[in-house]
Write a structure and sequence with these properties.
The complex is a heterodimer of chains A (560) and B (388). With 560 residues, chain A is mainly alpha-helical. Chain A has helices at residues 2-10, 14-22, 37-47, 53-62, 64-71, 79-87, 137-157, 161-173, 182-186, 188-198, 203-211, 214-219, 233-242, 273-282, 333-343, 346-360, 367-379, 386-395, 398-402, 411-422, 432-438, 456-459, 462-474, 498-510, 516-526, 537-552, 555-558; strands spanning 92-94, 97-98, 104-105, 108-110, 286-290, 293-295, 298-299, 302-308, 318-320, 323-325, 425-426, 483-484. With 388 residues, chain B is an alpha/beta fold. Chain B contains ten helices and twelve strands. The radius of gyration of chain B is 21 Å and the shape is globular. Classes of the chains: A mainly alpha (560), B alpha/beta (388).
Amino acid sequence: MQATRRDFLKGSSTALLGAALFSGVSLPPAFAVTPANISMRKALNRLTFGATQFDLAEVEALGLSVWLGRQLDASFKNDSLAGVLANAYIPIEYEAGKDENGNSWAAIKEPKRPLNHLNAELASFVPLTNFTKSFEYTERERPAKEVQLAALIRAVHSNNQLAEVITQFWHEHFSVNSVKDATCAAYFVQHDRLIRDNALGNFRVLLGSMAKSPSMLAYLNNNESRASPANENYARELFELHTMGEAGYTNGNYANWSDVPGAKEGLAQSYIDQDVYEAARAFTGWTIGEGSEMGDGDVLPLTGEFTYFQRWHDPYQKRILGVEFKPNGAPMADGERVLDILAKHPATAKTIALKLTRRLLADEPDEALVAEVAAAFLELSEDPQQIAKLVKLIALSMQFSDQEPTKMKRPMEFLASLYRATGASVYSTGNAFYHLQRAGWRQHEWRPPTGHPDVATYWANTNTISAMTAIAINALEDWFGAASIQLWSGERGNIKTIGQLADYWSTQMLGSKPDEAFIAALADGFGAAEDSLAEDQGGRDWQARTMIALVALSPEFMTR
Amino acid sequence: MSTSTGKKPVLVIVFLRGGCDGLTLVSPTSDANYIAARPGALRVQRKGDGAGLSLNNPLADIDFCMQAQLKPLYDLYNDGQLAIVHAAGLTHATRSHFEAEDYMERGTPGVKSTRTGWLARFMEATKPDGILPALAVGDAAPDSLLGAHETIVAQELNDIRLASGHGIRPVFLKRLGDGLGSNVLFSQPIARLMSTGAALEAKAALDEEGNLKRYLPLENANYPENGLAARLRTVAQAIKLDLGLSVSTVDFGGWDTHVNQNGQIEELCNELSTAIAAFWRDLGSDQENVTLVVMSEFGRRLKSNESGGTDHGHGNAMFVLGQGLKGGQMHGRWPGLENDVLDAGADLAITTDYRDVLGEILNRRKGIEDLAAIFPDHKMTAPGIIAA
């Protein structure tokens, strides 16, 4: 594996990659050479928000390697998604009112307001954070809510499924609670764009865009950080959550920077609080251009973008991870250099490798694969497609094809995969986000900066499982108000018995027919014969929805 | 161990996530170093609007005040039901939220690989029977309950009843039992939901729609409209349904006040104190069975930052609420705030290991003799919070 990995890293075309990987005699059969529906389904359930019949046919026709190449190609067309987003809406309604600043607003009732903010210019978000302007608070949070719904819609409807999965991964990694305050909310459309633009690109570029994302600056308070003492919030989470990780933090072991192994040789292997303090100084003055008056006649630009305010910066010499920073560096040079060091640090490579393989593979992924991905992360550190290549490395590894589906779907993945497997179409928020929240999933509203946990030891609890049961039962009901489903269109119109109903949905969702005992229990529950179906439309719909929920609540559907 | 009413003693842990500023909650208002380290807006004042509430029986010869919004807890202190331990916490040097929580809730500072939480080991040691021995109110169980498979996690008790109100609920229960019940990921929570749900139905009344009847607190409880109050109300409901509750955990986040601490902390203190006071009133005669602890992963930096907030610190205050405590007093030892006694030159030092506070409660209220089974490799020193 080690020998072919280097070829793979250098290769640029998917054909070459496939050839390099599959020519080795020591490799086990991969999906591309031995297509079997179950392996494909397994792979797709990890690389998408849930396998559909359409994806299965596509990946079987193309082979996994070519399919991956297509999914990772940034120019891949995705026209149908734009239509779904354009037709989506979130109701908005509030009374006329006024706030403590004397601003007032008229009553609004728009049951079908579209997602207008999604494509808006950056400058249009600036007024939403200005409390001298008149806005009912719901309007200030609106951009965040639109991104939340768009995330569900994209998870269900995007053809760029792998990009969606990785985008969600980075949203968790660079987690921002989008409704923490009006600033986080207003600029969250931009935050999402920055992640989407770089999700499969280069980590250093992504890291830099996150350091300057207005939502991130506000969420971790760096927008208010000035000398001195600097605000440590961003710097601490930059080390712990965005780069070197908790495993790279050794404050309990070393009291002074010079005690940390590697520090005196030029690069510390791990970090301690002194590095956090110094890095916080490096980022002083990194803030948001919102036209703020800074005193002495200085006014920040009114752009809604990152800006640097020199007078807030602590210009003197710093020492971070044993690296000396000279005093009075160029504007932003201190912070950029911290990002440079961290983006190429071995501890960062380990953190990202572990998290990415954990996401795509298993809660406790194979250590050899993690080490291989970490090595590739460093080798590819200058590559503009660094992340895409890491994803491909994981997806084409033998550990990936060998891995049984032991990961529990998290609530968002469960709901999205339910909609995908049934061909449902998402049109609004409805009760979806309420129910996800009951299950413990807060899309873009996770409060601590860790992002949602990614291991079943967290999720396999009574609350989440009970709430996921409620989601399965309710997600396709009209009152849920999030998605519509055609229960009887096309081939579904041929379903005439409870037995056929069970066969059809079980095959759609799991790839295999249910056993007789299941059908018998179902018919018994319906109080009807297996070769019958309710005569009235309402009864038939209820039977179909119940059927789908029962299939969804199986371990085969709840794991990936 | 049971109390005079024959009920089991209940331990409720309220965890303030984010690192609460113990130097505001219980503030050394007259300490010269405290005054020097923070601007007026980030200090509890002794006079004027929003002045702190001066505590009787302070730890040292300085004026300690509770933040003004903690008035309901201050009243419980003066009533002898609330004890304060100051300069307490996790002795490990970490200033990471997540690492500190890992260590604290596992009960093994410096050791992250511990596979069980301290409350889980307590459950293992006592093996409480009953319908609902451990209840984590919220989205998921905290790490203190890591490995305690009897734990029920719920936002409301009705959530324990799978497919509540569904027309063919029995089919769902059978399907979930057959399908998920034999899967390694789901078997334990499903088994727990099945058995607890059934027992709950036998014990509590259902409404016409097949859901658990809405809980009616005592009339004078007056729960405020906030998240902590809603969660504590669920704990009160479980206690009064007499389900054999032994431990319950409740999380309360938002204490990571790096900016605008002055504005945030008033609201946080208000929610904390009004919710706990309402819960306490609601318990009525059950108060004697319940001990409630308020704790956080660490305190905050003595010296404030330049953005109106405080960064991650070390030592902190803990609250213990219950009957039969040495309440109305501060416990522990005040280390002072001179530069050379601060932890790492920056933060309130720790003179009471948080495990000693929890250990004394487990020993005296729960009858745990072998505390080494709960907190391994720790030499216990009871701080003397509970009356002889």
